[in-house]
């Protein structure tokens, strides 16, 4: 906040003969004067001093935030010259102070609706801290000026005219914007040295802009106030009682000298033009007070002009700087005002969907406000979820990132070990119970597992994302957008092959570059293709026949197409299909297939893009096929990049949701954890890292165990984003460790065997090498590893103690028992405390391998260091393709291993932590847009199938209540 100005200066009275000086407290003292004349309160000089102080305040803000600058928008409808004069004064004052002032000129044809739309945009612009609507509105249309002033956000209403701000003044809340002219009057009165407490004040005039708010401010400064107006009886006698007389009645020289109490302070707010033949203009400006008469009686008086007018402008600037300081303070102090939701724990714990339905989520706009988002930065999808604009990253670009924590797991059972549940429990503990700004960043679940065997991915028990049915079903449509975009590429690919096979070079070229309304030109994407081909001419008619043929023909090899179609459903019968069987396709049939949408390279790109430009560049580089000469054919060659951007323009924004306890969750992207890297998006993480601030936490999840998800998180995602992780949370269960010790198979839908329901320390001891290997995997990246033991009901104290001891002895930073499934965030407080301590460690993060290594060397490094293999064995076809990729310039890409998550080896039946085996790689694919090479170990399908009894049997819609039932 700007402190009161205590100014020491002298001022020569330009009207009388006396000299006025301020002392250290800013009060006047008479040095020499004719006692019969009032001292002149020069608003011009005082306003100048205020502007100088404001300039120092702005400089102070820039010292802390180098590119931060207060922003003021002055909106004018029409072009009245008197308004232009006032606006120039405000613009000049703003420039002098260091405020970035924008004169928003709107024509006289502007309608009320158009003006309201413009104000709404300015209200939503975080770079604008103050808005002034210049009155009167010079419009051909009828515009309600009261509606307009009330449409300026109270937080940006530097005029102080919004009814909300006026109401605050009326009830004595002076913390918001004070109306400028009245506030300038108060400042002038205080400069006189009068003790306002108990003084008799009379305000002549009751206008919304001056009289009424001036009386309120005087009242809350403890004066005894009388408000008079044109219909007040005994008006002269009322004025004669005033120690302070504020006049704003709009009548030239209305108040005469004999109306004024001797020694009173007179503040003249009027400004009127009267005829004066001595002036070149034929007019002169006077106030509402007969100045020459009044100065013979009053002790202090404001001149017109040069009195209240300059103070009004100064107070406008002061309010703008105050608003900017509040915004700057938000950037400097990012502590949230998070309002938690109370859990109502039950024992036994109900089903996930029952728990989710028992908790009413906060309105998403409330949550957005609590975590520092501006209204313009969210796009609501109903009342419980919203898209977040990527502009947040730019707005907070000078904000230091928070702590970055990744949750991974040991090698899981087919039931999963609760990574998502642990992520949510940890975030609830950090945000609600440890009072840390904390985000969870999660992948959007596919409908495949939701309707298949695994169920939803919203967490579980009392550690969930809500509304969980929204989370698991459609959400904001991002996966459907990826489906549409992916299949558009496939459709264009087959269409291009058909047209090339059925047309001559000339016909093909003429259709690709048609003449429209007598004009022929290349599109932007076609110009990029010309550049790649080395064709310098950009005139379609100037190309040679050979150049036209090269441009028009992609010569796609139908036996070397890598782009298939996708659908977000487990549909095993689409694993191999035949396309082009219609007679219209002229015999151009071929075998193809469908994959599940989350395995699409577009989904991987969505998760790895750093900004819109990077997203577009990656999409353009996607290799969809190879031509007959073995060269890659890209999405840009097909001409679809721009269309993909249009389809995906909303999908690039992460979705804001919340946990059961009301902490924020960002949901974005959902790349397949086998074929791709299995992590939520870089963009979501970057938004979250800025919003939490330097002392906050962003907790994200990596798919599967540390050997797959965490390794890819570090080597692919962190390498692409440049964000440095603070800690790893490694989720382990007694159940999984017993399985790795030789316990019976764990099968979904089948009751657990006795070994998992009773204490068995020997079996557990034999399985601990798997945990030790995963701890070592995390430590190889130089990141502290905290083991989270996700408790199940059958786990015993002895078993838990054994896991804790072995984990710490083998390099874990800490090992903590977690009960968040049954207790929410309270059950993960010790885990949160361990994560906080681990994040305070000096970071020593490094990647596992150098990108300059050959592709085979990088594969070997991952296999040896992450899995425990002795060597990798490349099938002959794989070796040839790897050499091809190297020759085509893809050799410096990172590796994204596709391997079973159920074993450290490539064989899902092998448990524990085997060593010295050979990892066989029987296929390899290129994801040039995503930016990685995918070696495939064993049988990895991109299209899962539904089991005999999928989750479909349990899912239903209650037609009476409208609630979804049976989601896991």
TrEMBL record:
It is found in: Cytoplasm. InterPro entries: Aminoacid_DH-like_N_sf, Formate_THF_ligase, Formate_THF_ligase_CS, NAD(P)-bd_dom_sf, P-loop_NTPase, THF_DH/CycHdrlase, THF_DH/CycHdrlase_cat_dom, THF_DH/CycHdrlase_CS. It catalyses: (6S)-5,6,7,8-tetrahydrofolate + formate + ATP = (6R)-10-formyltetrahydrofolate + ADP + phosphate; (6R)-5,10-methenyltetrahydrofolate + H2O = (6R)-10-formyltetrahydrofolate + H(+). Its EC number is 1.5.1.5, 3.5.4.9, 6.3.4.3. Pathway: One-carbon metabolism; tetrahydrofolate interconversion. Residues 41-159 form the Tetrahydrofolate dehydrogenase/cyclohydrolase catalytic domain. It comes from the Eukaryota. Its main location: cytoplasm. Keywords: ATP-binding, Cytoplasm, Hydrolase, Ligase, Multifunctional enzyme, NADP, Nucleotide-binding, One-carbon metabolism, Oxidoreductase. Residues 179-326 form the Tetrahydrofolate dehydrogenase/cyclohydrolase NAD(P)-binding domain. GO terms for cellular component: cytosol. GO terms for molecular function: ATP binding; formate-tetrahydrofolate ligase activity; methenyltetrahydrofolate cyclohydrolase activity; methylenetetrahydrofolate dehydrogenase (NADP+) activity. GO terms for biological process: 10-formyltetrahydrofolate biosynthetic process; folic acid metabolic process; methionine metabolic process; purine nucleotide biosynthetic process; tetrahydrofolate interconversion. PANTHER family: C-1-TETRAHYDROFOLATE SYNTHASE, CYTOPLASMIC, C-1-TETRAHYDROFOLATE SYNTHASE, CYTOPLASMIC-RELATED. Homodimer. In the C-terminal section; belongs to the formate--tetrahydrofolate ligase family. This is C-1-tetrahydrofolate synthase, cytoplasmic. It comes from Photinus pyralis.
């Amino acid at each position: 906040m700007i402190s009161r100005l205590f100014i020491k200066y002298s001022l020569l009275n330009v009207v009388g003969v006396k000299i006025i000086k301020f002392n250290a407290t800013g009060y006047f003292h008479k040095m020499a004067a004719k006692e019969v004349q009032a001292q002149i309160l020069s608003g011009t000089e005082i306003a100048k001093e205020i502007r100088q102080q404001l300039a120092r305040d702005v400089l102070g803000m820039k010292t802390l935030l180098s590119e931060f600058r207060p922003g003021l928008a002055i909106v004018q409808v029409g072009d009245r010259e008197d308004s232009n004069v006032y606006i120039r004064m405000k613009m000049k004052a703003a420039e002098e102070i260091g405020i970035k002032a924008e004169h928003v000129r709107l024509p006289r044809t502007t309608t009320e609706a158009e003006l309201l739309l413009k104000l709404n945009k300015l209200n939503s612009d975080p770079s604008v801290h103050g808005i002034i609507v210049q009155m009167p509105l010079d419009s051909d249309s009828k515009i309600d000026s009261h509606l307009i002033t009330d449409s300026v956000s109270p937080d940006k209403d530097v005029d102080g005219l919004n009814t909300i701000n006026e109401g605050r003044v009326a009830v004595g809340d002076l913390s918001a914007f004070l109306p400028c002219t009245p506030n300038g009057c108060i400042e002038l009165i205080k400069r006189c040295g009068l003790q306002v407490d108990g003084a008799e004040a009379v305000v002549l005039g009751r206008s919304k802009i001056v009289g009424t708010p001036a009386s309120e401010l005087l009242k809350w400064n403890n004066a005894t106030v009388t408000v008079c107006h044109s219909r007040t009886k005994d008006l002269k006698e009322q004025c004669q009682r005033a120690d302070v007389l504020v006049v704003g009645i709009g009548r030239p020289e209305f108040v005469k000298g004999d109306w004024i109490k001797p020694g009173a302070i007179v503040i003249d707010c009027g400004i009127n033009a009267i005829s004066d033949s001595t002036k070149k203009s034929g007019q002169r400006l006077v106030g509402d007070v007969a100045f020459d008469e009044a100065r013979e009686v009053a002790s202090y008086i404001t001149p017109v002009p040069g009195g209240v007018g300059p103070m009004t402008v100064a107070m406008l600037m002061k309010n703008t700087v105050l608003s900017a300081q509040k915004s700057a303070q938000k950037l400097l102090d990012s502590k949230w005002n998070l309002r938690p939701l109370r859990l109502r724990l039950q024992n036994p714990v109900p089903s996930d969907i029952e728990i989710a339905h028992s908790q009413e989520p906060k309105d998403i706009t409330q949550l957005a406000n609590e975590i520092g988002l501006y209204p313009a930065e969210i796009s609501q999808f109903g009342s419980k979820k919203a898209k977040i604009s990527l502009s947040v990253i730019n707005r907070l670009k000078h904000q230091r990132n928070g702590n970055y924590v990744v949750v991974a797991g040991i090698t899981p059972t087919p039931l999963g070990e609760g990574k998502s549940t642990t992520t949510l429990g940890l975030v609830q503990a950090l945000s609600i119970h440890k009072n840390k700004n904390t985000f969870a960043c999660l992948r959007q679940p596919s409908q495949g597992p939701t309707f298949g065997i695994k169920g939803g991915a919203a967490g579980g028990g009392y550690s969930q994302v809500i509304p969980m049915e929204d989370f698991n079903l459609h959400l904001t449509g991002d996966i459907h957008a990826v489906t549409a975009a992916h299949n558009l590429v496939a459709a264009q690919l087959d269409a291009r092959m058909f047209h090339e096979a059925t047309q001559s070079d000339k016909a093909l070229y003429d259709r690709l570059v048609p003449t429209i309304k007598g004009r022929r030109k290349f599109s932007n994407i076609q110009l990029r293709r010309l550049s790649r081909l080395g064709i310098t001419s950009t005139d379609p008619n100037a190309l040679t026949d050979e150049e036209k043929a090269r441009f028009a023909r992609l010569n796609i090899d139908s036996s070397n197409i890598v782009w298939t179609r996708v659908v977000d459903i487990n549909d095993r019968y689409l694993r191999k299909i035949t396309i082009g069987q219609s007679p219209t396709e002229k015999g151009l049939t071929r075998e193809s297939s469908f994959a599940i949408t989350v395995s699409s390279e577009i989904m991987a790109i969505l998760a790895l893009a750093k900004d819109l430009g990077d997203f577009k560049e990656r999409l353009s580089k996607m290799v969809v096929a190879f031509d007959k000469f073995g060269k890659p054919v890209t999405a840009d060659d097909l001409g679809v990049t721009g269309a993909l951007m249009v389809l995906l323009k909303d999908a690039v924004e992460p979705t804001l949701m919340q946990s059961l306890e009301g902490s924020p969750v960002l949901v974005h992207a959902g790349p397949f954890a086998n074929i791709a890297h299995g992590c939520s998006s870089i963009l979501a993480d970057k938004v979250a890292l800025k919003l939490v601030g330097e002392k906050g936490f962003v907790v994200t999840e990596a798919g599967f165990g540390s050997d797959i998800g965490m390794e890819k998180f570090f080597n692919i995602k962190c390498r692409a984003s440049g964000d440095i992780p603070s800690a790893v949370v490694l989720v382990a269960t007694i159940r999984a460790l017993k399985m790795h010790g030789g316990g019976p198979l764990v099968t979904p839908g089948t009751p657990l065997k006795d070994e998992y329901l009773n204490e068995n320390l020997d079996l557990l001891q034999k399985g601990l090498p798997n945990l030790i290997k995963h701890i070592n995997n995390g430590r190889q990246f130089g990141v502290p590893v905290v083991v989270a033991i996700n408790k199940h009901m059958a786990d015993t104290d002895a078993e838990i103690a054994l896991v804790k001891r072995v984990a710490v002895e083998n390099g874990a930073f800490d090992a903590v028992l977690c009960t968040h499934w049954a207790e929410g965030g309270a059950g993960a407080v010790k885990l949160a405390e361990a994560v906080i301590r681990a994040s305070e460690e000096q970071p020593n993060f490094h990647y596992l391998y150098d990108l300059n290594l050959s592709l085979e060397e990088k594969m070997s490094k991952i296999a040896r260091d992450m899995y425990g293999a002795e060597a990798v064995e490349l099938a002959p076809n794989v070796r040839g393709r790897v050499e091809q990729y190297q020759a085509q310039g893809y050799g410096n890409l990172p590796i994204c291993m596709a391997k079973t998550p159920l074993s450290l080896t490539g064989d899902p039946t092998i448990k524990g932590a085997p060593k010295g085996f050979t990892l066989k790689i029987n296929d390899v694919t290129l994801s040039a847009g995503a930016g990685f090479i995918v070696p495939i170990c064993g049988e990895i399908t991109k299209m899962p199938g539904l089991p005999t009894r999928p989750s479909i049997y349990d899912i239903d819609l209650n037609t009476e209540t409208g609630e979804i039932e049976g989601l896991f």
